[in-house]
Design brief:
The protein has 349 residues and is of the alpha/beta class. The protein is 44% helix and 18% strand. The strands form two sheets. Strands 1, 2, 3, 4, 5 and 11 form a six-stranded mixed beta sheet that branches. Strand 7 (185-188), helix 6 and strand 8 form a beta-alpha-beta unit. Helix 2 (56-71) packs antiparallel against helix 10 (268-302) and helix 6 (192-200) runs antiparallel to helix 12. The longest helix is centred in the last third of the chain and has 35 residues, at 268-302. Residues 1-21 and 29-38 have low confidence and may be disordered.
Length: 349
């Protein structure tokens, strides 16, 4: 699954889930690209997001909905589905690639099989500032990776959302050093770099779909997980986890994508509207993510979680522990590319 986006027969089972009222974008693309004022029904655009209502990814998607409908005078009916209602990241990304779903925001790791450079986004402690991250994702590096994904994945990348700096939670004890992770089953995304990172830290990384995490924590199948604070709070992990450590070990972008056949079928006017709406969505997403980060830390404290902050000296111990991950993946990702990102980050620190 993580090696290549595979469109299997099982995917046919979800086609029915993506049908609905109005004209779907895939149906409309060949008959009347971009829609027109004479259409009796608006063109439906469904956007899938695996995270909860109120998270920056969902809010960004809703901003796209609001903006696109306004720019096109209601010729598009954009519908945002949160909480993995249409499936997990892998499933909805496959659906967008296949054309049975119009859009989604998804973790970049689902494209690791068709773009080696995607692993760059998962390298631990590589991204050290949001300003530097913006320069990477909105500049030549982000554009180059998007082009590779678009060439091989059947999707068009509209932009990069911010998920935020990831933190570690667990139900056993406070985590201050990597030694505190030893033996703990920590859920991670199904990414080779994530797995290598948590192996290097001494944990027992356990990949699973995000939609399964709360139940697994509740039942004790896993001891902990790692995600940004907004995800931890809005998914109510504080109900089943007692400790969170603000490690900031990985900066989590999400890719905001649309089916490429649909996008290429649009008129120039509607392409411009999609692009403008996506720009507004990315702006709203990042602003909310950064504005609420400290608020969520306090909300988690108020909900009963012990929130541990790491000093620069303590964080340096974590950075040293994951050094072998860079050695393992530098050839595949590209040592020069990694160095370019490090230079960008140095400018903003």
């Amino acid at each position: 699954m993580k090696k290549i986006i595979v469109l299997t027969l099982a995917l046919a089972l979800i086609i029915g889930a993506f049908s609905g009222c109005g004209t779907t974008a895939s149906e409309n693309a060949s008959q009347n690209p971009g829609g027109s004022a004479q259409d009796s029904k608006p063109t439906v655009i469904k956007i899938a997001c695996g995270l909860a209502e109120g998270t920056p990814m969902v809010v960004g998607s809703q901003k796209f909905e609001e903006t696109l409908e306004k720019l096109t005078d209601g010729r598009y009916d954009v519908q945002v589905y949160a909480n993995a209602e249409l499936g997990d990241d892998t499933r909805v990304t496959e659906a967008v690639s296949m054309g049975t779903l119009e859009m989604c925001c998804t973790t970049p790791s689902v494209f690791s099989g068709i773009c080696d450079q995607i692993g760059l986004f998962d390298l631990p402690f590589l991204f050290t500032s949001t300003e530097g991250a913006d320069e990477v994702f909105d500049g030549e590096i982000g554009a180059s990776i998007s082009k590779t994904v678009e060439t091989n994945g059947g999707v068009h990348v509209l932009g990069y959302f911010e998920n935020g700096f990831r933190c570690v939670t667990n139900s056993k004890h406070e985590i201050v050093t990597p030694d505190d992770l030893k033996g703990l089953k920590i859920r991670t995304p199904e990414s080779d770099v994530f797995l290598a990172t948590f192996n290097a830290l001494g944990a027992n990384p356990t990949p699973m779909a995000f939609s399964e995490v709360f139940t697994a924590l509740q039942q004790g199948t896993i001891d902990g997980q790692e995600n940004p604070l907004n995800t931890i709070y809005l998914n109510k992990f504080y109900e089943v986890q007692g400790y969170v450590t603000r490690t900031g070990h990985i900066y989590g972008p999400h890719m905001f994508i649309v089916n490429s056949k649909l996008y290429n079928s649009l008129s120039d006017e509607d392409k411009a509207a999609f692009d403008e709406a996506a720009g507004e969505a990315v702006k709203a997403n990042r602003e909310l993510s950064r504005e609420l980060d400290e608020d969520y830390a306090q909300k988690l404290r108020d909900a009963g979680m012990a929130v541990t902050e790491l000093s620069p000296e303590q964080k340096a111990v974590w950075q040293e522990a994951v050094a072998p991950v860079y050695e393992q993946f530098s050839d595949k990702i590209g040592a020069d590319l990694i160095a370019r990102v490090q230079e960008i980050m140095a400018k903003h620190n």
